[in-house]
Amino acid sequence: MVQLTLIKITGYGPWTLTLGSDREHRLQMLQASLYHEIQKLFSEKNCLAFPNRFDETFVISNGLTLDEHIEIQKKLAQTFELSFSMSIGTGNTPFEASSNADKARRTKTFLNQDYTIFGFPIQKEVGPVQIIHMDVDGSTSISANKTAYEVSSLILKLYAEMSEFFLERNSLAFFMGGDNFMVISTNANKDEISKFLDTVKQKHGILFNCGIGTAQTGRDAAKLATKSLDAIRDLRDSGKQETRILELTC
Ligand SMILES: Nc1nc2c(ncn2[C@@H]2O[C@H](COP(=O)(O)OP(=O)(O)OP(=O)(O)O)[C@@H](O)[C@H]2O)c(=O)[nH]1
Ligand SMILES: [Mg+2]
Predict the structure, then answer these.
(1) pLDDT, tens digit, 9 for 90 and up, residues 147-188
(2) What's the confidence (pLDDT) of residue 23?
(3) Do 159 and 82 share a structural domain?
(4) Final residue in a domain of this structure, among 99, 119, 139
(5) Which ligand has an atom closest to residue 133 CA?
């Protein structure tokens, strides 16, 4: 089981219009500070945030209670002039959790109306979550004979394929920066991941390294996934073994 929290800015569209047309720079600064604040407040509680189109953020919130969500809502309200809704969903898969969060928001099922927190009653024992940290092997040399924008275009193509492939398997993929992606999963299947890696290699000539981490909280799962990824690099650099997928569980 995984618990996800989706944070959205309330009434963002109409509010942006009140800024007039010279607004883009202000919206970009706001979105960057909001992401910073959300990542800070949630990671302090062992959660991990994932950017979703800049005006929404997903958080793996395993173990986070309603009171702790309220505490974060209060801090966000102190920092920003905008208000936010939170929708909490749990599920056997990340897709199911996200769809339950959506359902609660659409049906206005409140866990706390004063602080605009939607959701169905929070389950105490949520269980482990998995993160797959994917990183392009040797992106520095791949980028050497491409322009910065051509590299971005390639990364976007990889992201689109990853998102589609993993969504079909009820997992959610996010671009984390540089050549890094993280997939939120609950039951990563190495054969399935290998299938994705083979397709990408065939279509784009790109190799991914892939670290898997499983833990009770989002932050711990990410830590183990990144540790697995770094172990793959160490094996490669020591010339010992060619490994593409490695898993660590706490
Ligand atoms: N989000 C995130 N970005 C990272 C991380 N490590 C590196 N980066 C970014 O990824 C870019 C590429 O770095 P690397 O993946 O180490 O470079 P590489 O040439 O592909 O080397 P290998 O992955 O070891 O094959 C860096 O410039 C950073 O922007 C990470 O753990 N998380
Ligand atoms: Mg890399």
Answers:
(1) 999 999 999 999 999 999 999 999 999 999 999 999 999 988
(2) 98
(3) no
(4) 119
(5) 1
